[in-house]
Design a protein that fits this description.
- With 319 residues, the chain is α/β, with parallel strands linked by helices.
- It folds into 2 domains: 168 residues, 3-Layer(aba) Sandwich (Peroxisomal Thiolase, Chain A, domain 1), CATH 3.40.47.10; 143 residues, Peroxisomal Thiolase, Chain A, domain 1.
- Strands 1-7-6-4-5 form a 5-stranded mixed beta sheet, with helices on both faces. Strands 8-13-12-11 form a 4-stranded mixed beta sheet, with helices on both faces. Strands 2-3 form a two-stranded antiparallel ribbon.
- Helix 4 links the parallel strand 4 and strand 5.
- The chain is globular, with a radius of gyration of 18 Å.
- The chain starts with a strand and ends with a strand.
């Protein structure tokens, strides 16, 4: 049986770092307040002309290099993003051009913070159906372009960046994607959204969030999704070596871990340095853990995320 195996990972963060201390100079907030409520100490902010496609290409280039493959081996590119360069064409095709890849297909996936998990599920299906052999999956977002920098309740939470993996077909049977659980419920679309759009206002709009509602749903839905997936996959929770949750807020991460009974030392946390980078959140955290040899070959990893929609889901794989 063909398996989808992660053969390489990469990430990119803009060089500009905005600390909580710097935000204190612009809005009514404090480093102590932000850290105590979110765990965030800093975020990377892209420049005005630093587009999502460029961040995606930088992360993708590293992932391809680490996989040991060549550009000519990549036959599909999927970019999960909420902040595309343009309404069209897809950011994925611009990324494809920047990487110098001439073959295969490229398209975007929009499921906000859950986008990377959705994108992996599509890549996995394409590989297992025989439609692709090596898929570059990227999560990239420039959330700084969507937040209202005068809204202290949301602007402190977000940052920019990109993370990528290469999924490759393998019949070794020793590692690979084990399973998915994907969900959405449009009845909750009004607790996390942008107040603009192509056919409504003609603008991208700014991010609006009902924080307490999002917190409640994030813990409940990510938790239930992961429990359901473990049962469906026939994996006991103690067999999971690492949990890489969406890096939105340290309180959400800690509450989720406590609810599920995951020990703190088994949780990957990068939110303090990256903030919430939406679709880039999990691949950035994942690459950080792989690059530091925290997550090792042969270990079982669970990832889970929730975003606007509401859209949420989980994935389990063996590295």
């Amino acid at each position: 049986m063909i398996q989808s195996v992660i053969t390489g990972s990469g990430s990119y963060l803009p060089s500009r770092i905005v600390t909580n201390k710097e935000l204190e100079q612009a809005i009514e907030t404090s480093d102590e307040w932000i850290v105590s409520r979110t765990g965030i100490k800093q975020r990377h902010i892209a420049g005005d002309t630093e587009y999502v496609s460029a961040m995606a290409a930088n992360a993708g280039k590293i992932a391809i290099e680490k996989s040991g493959l060549q550009n000519t081996d990549i036959d599909l590119i999927i970019v999960a993003t909420t902040t595309p360069d343009k309404t069209f064409p897809a950011t994925a095709v611009i990324t494809q051009s920047l990487l110098g890849i001439k073959q295969g297909a490229a398209f975007d996936v929009q499921a906000v913070c859950a986008g990377f998990i959705y994108a992996i599920s599509i890549a996995d299906s394409m590989i297992k159906s025989g439609s692709a052999k090596n898929v570059l999956v990227i999560g990239a977002d420039k959330m700084s372009s969507l937040v209202d920098w005068n809204d202290r309740g949301t602007c402190i939470l977000f940052g920019d960046g990109a993370g990528a993996i290469v999924l490759s077909a393998s019949n070794s049977g020793n590692s690979g994607i084990i399973g998915f659980d994907l969900n959405s419920d449009g009845d909750y679309r009004d607790i996390l959204y942008t107040n603009g759009g192509v056919t409504t206002t003609g603008t991208s709009g700014k991010l609006v969030m009902l924080g307490k509602e999002v917190f409640k749903h994030a813990v409940e839905k990510m938790g239930s999704s992961l429990v359901k997936l473990l049962k469906k996959s026939g994996i006991e929770q103690h067999e999971v070596d690492w949990l890489v949750p969406h890096q939105a807020n340290i309180r959400i991460i800690d509450t989720l871990a406590s609810k599920l009974g995951f020990a703190d030392e088994k949780i990957i946390k990068t939110v303090s340095n990256h903030a919430n980078t939406s679709a880039a959140s999990i691949p950035l955290a994942l690459d950080s853990a792989i690059a530091s040899n925290t997550i090792k070959k042969g270990e079982i990893v669970a990832i889970t995320a929730i975003g606007g929609g509401l859209s949420w889901g989980s994935c389990i794989f063996k590295l």
